[in-house]
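Dataset card, provenance and construction

Sequences and ligand SMILES were collected as paired inputs. For each pair, a complete structure of the chain with the small molecule in place was predicted and serialized as structure tokens. The example below shows a pair involving zinc ion. Curators did not alter the output after generation; any descriptive sentences attached to a record were derived from the structure itself.
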Amino acid sequence: MDTFFISFRDPLFGIIVFFLLLFILSFISYWWGRRKSTNESQEIEIFLGKFDTSSSEAGIASQIHENAITNETWFLLAQGFEHQGNFEKSIEIYHALLSKKSDKIVQKEVLLKLGRGYFKAGFLERSRQSFLQVLQNHPRTPQALHHLILIYEHLQQYKDALEAMESLIEIQGSGGCEKLYLEARQLLCDPKASVDEKAAFLIDLYTQHTQLGYLVFEYLFTHRPSLAWKHFDQSLSVRLADILWRVPAENLDFDIIARNGFLRELFSAKGNCELSQSSPVFELDTLITLRTCGNTKATLQFEYVCGECHTISFLPFHRCPNCHAIDSIESIMTLTKERFDDNNSFQ
Ligand SMILES: [Zn+2]
């Protein structure tokens, strides 16, 4: 009878216990995985339940569920709609793909594309929910964090943007000048901070990091021109041409202007001084010549180009509206007719 029982000290007993533990651990791991997967699919269903479903979306969903077309083909189709500006259609495709039971990697990719689609279409809250859904299951996703920062910046929720920035810096190691930019924007939008506090912060920022030159000097020349001239970085003269062009004559510092070739030409072209007779820049040279002849009907107008992606904008920007690069703005000057004659007075 004793042959059927294994002694406690028998080496076979230890082996049996080892395999028993291995089985229990495998079972728990399998059960946990199943539970997590079920929770994730329930989360996706709850997420999709937050949005209205149109009849055409139901049609696309049935196509996606019944046809054997691959996800990649649907992605290409959705991107085609996005390029045409038909974001409604691309979003419908992403919704339908999410409702299909897919693995976690595909779901993450669809959610990221859906978030970007909502962002481009201007639905910031829906875009935010999409990226937060990604981060719930995949916290180390830089693309989702990057778009969350953009959304919070659009909504002027700089505290949340800086929190997302901290997470991004932890993943990527460095945030470049984006953190400085968000801190500067946060202070500039703070109604409790005085103009002097803002100016002191921006001067300190530029002195320490030599970054965000356009943003710093745009604010200083607008609100504290004397401080702007005191801390003026002459290497930025060409880049800041549009800001300098708009500085009123009474706020100009002719000592600094006289010492800088480009500034002499710029303000001679504007008619504030006669320190240059010509310029290697065609537009400035033409204006100087016209003013020498007594013609004051011409002026400059500015367009803006991103130094990273070369997108042209008619309005100045601190973050490129296309590639989202910071402080990549460069101004392009063009000759134009003076819009307001001396006779156009409201008096
Ligand atoms: Zn750009």
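Derived descriptions for this record:
The first strand starts at residue 298 and ends at 306.
Residues 306, 308-309, 311, 320, 322-323, 325, 328 surround zinc ion (CB under 6 Å).
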